[in-house]
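In this section we walk through a basic example: taking a raw amino acid sequence and producing a predicted 3D structure, encoded as discrete structure tokens. The instruction is simple. Fold the sequence below.
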Amino acid sequence: MARKSKAFGEILKQQRAEKTHEKELEKLQQKLQKGPWGDKVAGTVTNPKGEAKMSEVLEEFVEPYLSSIETPVERKKLFEVAVVAWNLSLMPETVRQTMIDKLIQESMEGADPWIKQDMRKMIDELIARKQKFFTQHKRYVIDFQLEDTGSGFHLSVASTLSNPFAPDSAD
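The resulting token sequence is shown next.
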């Protein structure tokens, strides 16, 4: 029996990865359509031509923090905080601080003040990172899906095509 070449194996692996990616995008789109955005987000999970893949941008955004992550649960929490910080960075400065205060107050009610302080610090660091290294990206992240692949993870991201909540001159 003839042995399959290494290149053929790589092609099959790539095809399986592409099918998995397509399925993940379909799942994310279905999740979004069932959520508060409803049918307003139909088609937003596809990768528009000429635009950066937000999954790649978001992975690069959190890259400095990934080395301290030990579990898939911690990775998911990191991406959740990163998405919040990303979206907050797109808001005008006058609104941003109020939103951060409200977010920490509501989501961390009863938490130790030190933990709240650490969360604010991390959000502020991520916002500063976004504004320093990712200024060209003005798309809000609507949702994401993170899948553990065993040897790593796969990220699918749904985002707006532009910043629909602020004028072009916003932060």
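Looking at the output, two observations stand out. The mean pLDDT is 80. Residues 6-34 form the longest helix (29 residues). In the next section we compare this with other chains.
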